[in-house]
Design goal:
Number of helices: 9
Strand content: 15-25%
Shape: globular
Distance between the termini: 50 Å
Helix content: 40-55%
Number of strands: 6
Strand order of the largest sheet: 3-2-1-4-5-6
Structural class: alpha/beta
Radius of gyration: 18 Å
Length: 234
């Protein structure tokens, strides 16, 4: 298995170099920024409240909760930079969040419902995190499942807008982001993830998920690399 692991690493490295040798081109006329699930349900405060309701010892979990907060804040800082740069350059942001349509959340997808992920309209977890919240006139879509294509009419909207390329940021790498990136690519869009502007519940889950999509289903670059390229756009 050691030889196979090494062979696979070299194989995918060669594939990446052949397909994704250059960064995804950026043009405000056909590029959109998709922001996935940047909402209160992923914050340290929300998890603290949830763990308390579950009867868990929140004091004992403080180091873990603090790490959740640090992990989020680092990623959120990069998301804010990417969002600002896209707005400045005319690249349209599209904000997507998890929220049911019915007040009892009965319309929630089976997977989310079985995991207790019920987010009725107006509940605290559905609020966008303020620093990455949509501005008036920006598109907002909501879903009751992981994938942005199964859960929303995004594909039709992107095609109506003439969008061919998408930048993706948000949460969680191993769940909604990964599912959505794969679908975007299969539907024919050029896709690029900003790898330090997406994240998972834990660093390990992020890194393992990133391995499965980076330079395979999507091009990738860091926030600093993307911002440097965007600075040259007119």
């Amino acid at each position: 298995m050691t030889q196979l692991n090494e062979f696979a690493n070299q194989y995918y490295k060669g594939l990446a170099e052949g397909v994704y040798g250059d960064p995804m081109p950026l043009d405000s006329s056909d590029t959109a920024l998709i922001l996935i699930d940047i909402q209160e349900s992923i914050t340290q405060e929300y998890y603290t409240r949830q763990f308390t309701e579950f009867g868990m010892d929140v004091a004992a979990l403080k180091p873990i909760l603090d790490e959740i907060g640090q992990n989020l804040n680092k990623t959120l800082s990069n998301i804010e930079k990417v969002l600002k740069a896209c707005r400045d350059k005319g690249i349209r942001p599209i904000h997507i969040k998890i929220e049911s349509y019915l007040p009892d959340a009965k319309d929630t997808g089976l997977l989310h419902a079985s995991a207790g992920m019920l987010y009725p309209p107006g509940s605290h977890g559905t609020d966008f995190i303020a620093s990455a919240a949509p501005l008036d006139g920006e598109l907002v879509l909501k879903k009751t499942c992981s994938g942005i294509h199964v859960g929303t009419p995004l594909d039709r909207i992107l095609r109506n807008l003439g969008i061919k390329r998408v930048l993706v940021v948000g949460f969680y790498t191993d769940q909604c982001v990964s599912t959505s990136v794969r679908d975007l690519r299969d539907l024919g869009y050029e896709v690029a993830i900003v790898e330090d502007a997406i994240n998972a519940f834990s660093p390990e889950r992020h890194e393992k998920a990133l391995l499965g999509i980076k330079k395979i289903y999507a091009n990738s670059e860091t926030t600093d690399e993307l911002l440097a390229r965007m600075a040259t756009l007119k």
